[in-house]
Write a structure and sequence with these properties.
With 235 residues, the chain is mainly alpha-helical. The protein is built from ten helices and five strands. A three-stranded antiparallel beta sheet has the order 3-5-4. Helix 1 packs across helix 3, helix 5 crosses helix 10 and helix 7 runs parallel beside helix 9. The longest helix has 39 residues. It starts with a helix and ends in a 10-residue tail after the last helix.
Amino acid sequence: MAELADKAGITVRTLRFYRERKLIPPPRREGRIAWYGEHHLARLRTIAALLERGHTLGGIAELLTAFECGRDVGELLGLAEAAITTPWSEEAAIRLTPEELADRFAGQITPENLTAALELGYLAADGDEIVHISRRLLDASTDLVRQGVPLSAVLTAAHEVRAHADALAETFTALVRTHVLAQSPDVPASLERLRPIARTVVDAELSLAMDRRLRRELTPNAEKRQPPGGAHRFP
């Protein structure tokens, strides 16, 4: 394991984490000896390349599982090639020391919260540093905690948001695969044109949903605050 980690340019700790996430296949065993081969090294280099392009560990695991299960490789490559070359996300990973992470979430870096963040794929250990997959998500989580939301609640909400985001991605991908990619001779160019459309739709729908929710939440309170006699009258 140490030799494989050294050749891949990662720490043994990171390699163990990848094994736990089933991102690499198990080694060949002879008694108590575990043998790793070139295919393990190639897998680690693929993971590293995808991480550098902004992909999450969860997304990488899904793609690798699809290949291993024998799904249509051509179809997967048709959808993923452009995304690998030019990721849809523009998230930049950020490295922190354990102390820096603790400073952001004073008193809330508990084993339970760390486990939840690892399961989400937000955090990974790399030697003495911690890698967060997204500076924007880290900053948003920090701001929420500073506003008084417990980190445990932020992480619970993140699970729900992830599920909704995955459902949105599935809906949009099916739409694009059926009506655009099947007829397009230039898949990367089509995906590049569709990228801002997807973001616009999600942003607009979320904004409208927040408006509807806030009206339902605040309207009863607004009515209660009105003085006797009804609404204010203006000259």
